[in-house]
Write a structure and sequence with these properties.
This protein is an alpha/beta fold. About 35% of the residues lie in helices and about 15% in strands. The chain has 13 helices and twelve strands. Strands 2-1-8-9-12 form a five-stranded mixed beta sheet. A five-stranded parallel beta sheet has the order 3-4-5-6-7, with helices on one face. A two-stranded antiparallel ribbon has the order 10-11. It is globular. The structure holds iron/sulfur cluster (2 copies). The site of one iron/sulfur cluster has 10 residues, from loops.
Length: about 350
């Protein structure tokens, strides 16, 4: 079935709190002042939301939190097991310690590791890379039923060190996915952005070539871009800690403190992200399927349909996606409902998914 024919999204990410055991330099929690918020959903609230979404094919806990710090982690994942809901989760790996009886059988874990040397990792995440890699080696030995893959964000200065992570992945036959950061302030963008004039940073191209040459299982979405659209609002949903429902994970990064919009910084330009246009409702106020059929959700899917059709029709492969992005940015009006998708597809979506 096509995405457009779907009666509801396939998967959901649920954010049960903001608690984390790290304070990484690029984390949305820092910029929106939620890193000290300690209250989390109780297990009844968690079950209420899961039951509301019981039609889904897949669910996970995630968002601006370290899942293993959620005080009801074990009960929550037991509940997924009890109702037969397939799941996985993303973790920073710090708390992946024995005994592993809290980890769901036969599931998958994505581990976020953004520095390939002890020094880079400490600078970005403030912890020890060796300790996290040691946790992973142990878990691979003792829980072979659990699939592991790495996620690494590309910054200006961490790319040379990431070759070590590629070698680690090859040694243990696991995959790695490279992602790009979202910059909430101009200063952070200037300091850490891997983007350069002319679109693709040659260091990233070299890393890509190395992965290819070494037959690594990897994904690096800005290199080798092909015509594409976005299926996210058809495929996924994300419930924030306050119950707000968003269609795409990176747009829902900063809910509670944002009522209307926020800014993202890219190559020295400040871009308005109309957060409010992408909030589809609140799960504590109405059932998800009512939101799904609301005019706002329908409008978003219709907009995406039109954009996707246009991409297919025009085979919109461009030699320099960057020029195309800047052209679209000139025409972008943040007050026009869901028009942010047009620039997101050309820049943020293609690098974030
Ligand atoms: S591990 Fe994740 S949630 Fe925790 S501080 Fe780092 S980026 Fe934020
Ligand atoms: S194009 Fe971007 S903003 Fe629009 S739905 Fe897809 S991921 Fe979300």
């Amino acid at each position: 079935m096509s995405f457009e024919g779907m009666k509801h999204p396939f998967d959901f990410t649920i954010e049960t709190g903001y608690v984390c055991n790290l304070n990484c330099l690029m984390c949305a929690r820092r910029y929106h002042n939620v890193q000290d918020v300690k209250d989390e959903w109780d297990i009844e609230k968690f079950k209420y939301v899961v039951n509301n979404l019981s039609f889904a094919n897949f669910m996970q806990i995630g968002g601006n939190q370290e899942v293993l710090c959620y005080k009801h982690f074990r009960e929550a994942y037991d509940y997924f097991g009890k109702i037969g809901m397939p799941t996985c989760f993303t973790t920073n790996g710090v708390a992946l310690k024995e005994p592993y009886d809290y980890l769901p059988y036969n599931s998958g874990i994505f581990v976020s590791i953004d520095g390939g040397t002890e020094e880079d990792y400490k600078r970005i995440r403030g912890y020890s890379l060796d300790a996290v890699l040691g946790n992973l080696v142990n878990i691979m030995k003792k829980r072979p039923d659990i699939g592991i893959a790495l996620h690494s964000i590309l910054f200006k200065d961490n790319i040379p060190g990431l070759y070590n992570l590629v070698d680690f992945c090859n040694k243990y036959s696991i995959g790695i996915r490279f992602l790009y950061p979202i910059f909430f302030t101009k200063d952070i963008e200037q300091k850490y952005s891997p983007f350069i004039e002319g679109d693709i940073n040659p260091e990233i191209v070299r890393l890509n070539d190395y992965c290819k040459r070494t037959n690594t299982k990897y994904a690096l979405s800005s290199v080798g871009i092909s015509p594409r659209g976005c299926g996210v609002p058809f495929q996924s949903g994300a419930i924030g800690k306050n119950g707000d429902e968003y269609t795409c994970c990176w747009l829902y990064t900063v809910r509670d403190n944002i009522s209307k919009d926020w800014k993202v910084h890219y190559r020295g330009t400040e871009i308005t992200v109309p957060q409010e246009q992408y909030k589809m409702g609140n799960i504590f106020e109405e059932p998800f399927l009512d939101m799904w059929n609301s005019p706002k959700y329908v409008h978003l899917r219709k907009t995406l349909n039109e954009i996707n059709q246009d991409w297919i029709k025009r085979g919109r492969y461009v030699k320099n996606p960057e020029d195309e992005f800047l052209k679209l940015l000139d025409k972008y009006d943040p007050n026009e409902e869901h028009s942010f998708c047009k620039i997101c597809l050309q820049r943020w979506c293609r690098i974030a998914y």
